[in-house]
């Protein structure tokens, strides 16, 4: 149940960000749910591989290269999903930063309900 709520909250965050950012767009809420699932899978499977392959650059930049890896994950989701788009790597970078921030806020509401 918690996984489904997290996916729905991530989809809500995607819809909100696509509404606010002119460089990102999503067609429907169902597409946003698919984006949330695909981003979760890409973060689980592809991101660790990219982190290991780019470890020297990540160490050299004191971890800031991880922001670029997050933007690349967003662009991969853009290529995999019809109905979701990000115009450039700069929009993907801003989208990934704001998505992480918005997800942490939304997930805190979910964790607040479990404490009661």
Tally of separate domains: 1
- Indicate the radius of gyration in whole angstroms: 14 Å
Helix content: over 70%
| Biggest β-sheet: strands ordered side by side in the sheet | 1-2
Order of H and E elements: HEHHHEH
Main sheet specs: 2 strands, antiparallel
Strand content: 5-15%
Instruction: Give the class from helix and strand content and strand pairing.
Output: mainly alpha
**SS field, number of helical segments:** 5
Overall mean pLDDT stands at: 93
Query: What are the low-pLDDT stretches, counting only 5+ consecutive residues below 50?
Result: none
Give the CA-based shape.
globular
The beta-strand count equals 2
Give the end-to-end Cα distance, rounded to a whole number of Å.
17 Å
Transmembrane segments: 28-46, 53-77, 89-110
InterPro entries: Phage_holin_4_2
Protein name: Putative membrane protein
Keywords: Membrane, Transmembrane, Transmembrane helix
């Amino acid at each position: 149940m918690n996984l489904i709520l997290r996916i729905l909250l991530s989809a809500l965050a995607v819809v909100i960000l696509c509404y606010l950012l002119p460089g990102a767009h999503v067609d429907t809420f169902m597409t946003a749910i698919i984006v949330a699932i695909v981003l979760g899978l890409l973060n689980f499977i592809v991101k660790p591989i990219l982190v290991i392959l780019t470890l020297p650059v990540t160490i050299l930049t004191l971890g800031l290269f991880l922001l670029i890896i997050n933007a690349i994950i967003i662009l991969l989701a853009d290529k995999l999903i019809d109905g979701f788009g990000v115009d450039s790597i700069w929009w993907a970078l801003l989208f990934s930063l704001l998505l992480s921030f918005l997800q942490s806020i939304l997930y805190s509401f979910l964790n607040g309900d479990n404490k009661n």
